[in-house]
Amino acid sequence: MTNDILYSFRRCPYAIRVRWALLICGIKVEIREIDLKNKPFDFLNKSKTKTVPILIKKNSEVIEESLEIIIWALSESKKEHIKNIYFPNDKKEDIIEIINENDNEFKYHLDRFKYSTRYQNSNEEFHFTKAIKFIKRWNELLTENKYFFGDIPTIADWSIWPFVRQFKIACESQKITNYLELPIKNWLDSFEKNRKFKSLMHKYELWEPNSSMNYFPFN
User: What is the pTM of this model?
Assistant: First the structure.
């Protein structure tokens, strides 16, 4: 295998945060965009979790957790001091804690707010109320700093903004207003309006075993 391979799904927030890390770290990979409703055999054969993102390293090692892929990208980056900038030693515990909060609690309520019809007995309003509590708490962090832990983003910001974006999309589709206060809105804008966002969200054709290779970043 001559390339690291990323199996991805364009709109998945876990895949978005991995692609963002690859962009910032300057890592180029072969990308395989898959249909989550019709997962290719090659993907299913390699993945224990059966969900994206997964990274197949050149040595055939498989990394299935998005946070682990982000840390791998930092370790592989040729950019000097990048690991200490985006994953500073003095903030590691706080960074892991807030990412876990997002992945295990906020995501639970976000899913049941955004996709309430998929969950039996799901109360959309209840889960919106629970989700907005996290948004407000994170907003308080951002009243003091541009990013969660200072004026430079860490992997905490990388890991959470795609989920806040998903919350925003859900609110807009349901005609909910005033769901983001200014600090967290500006924080989210710093990613969505970044010049790298277009490359991040480039739309690839679905991968098939006989497909031509596609690379990420696209340009």
Answer: 0.96
Secondary structure letter of residue 116 according to DSSP: G
Q: What is the pLDDT of residues 33-82, one digit of tens each?
A: 999 999 999 999 999 999 999 999 999 999 999 999 999 999 999 988 88
Q: Is residue 74 domain-shared with residue 93, that is, in the same domain? A: no
Residue 98 tokens, joined = 């807030």
Q: First vs last Cα of the chain: how many Å apart? A: 22
CA distance 33 to 200: 13
Q: Is residue 121 part of a domain?
A: yes
Is residue 99 a contact partner of residue 88, using CB atoms and an 8 Å limit?
no
DSSP secondary structure code for residue 39 in this structure: -
Say yes or no: 95 and 75 in one domain: no
Identify whether residues 39 and 105 lie together within a single domain: no
Give the separation between CA 204 and CA 196, rounded to whole angstroms: 16
Q: How far apart are CA 103 and CA 73, in angstroms?
A: 20
Can you tell me the distance from the alpha carbon of 197 to that of 168, in angstroms, rounded to the nearest whole number? 16
- Indicate the number of domains in the chain: 2
* SS3 of 157-201: HHHHHHHHHHHHHHHHHCCCCCCCCHHHHHHHHHHHCCCCHHHHC
Nearest to 18 by CA among 64, 79, 62, 49: 64
Statement to judge: residues 94 and 188 lie in one domain? yes
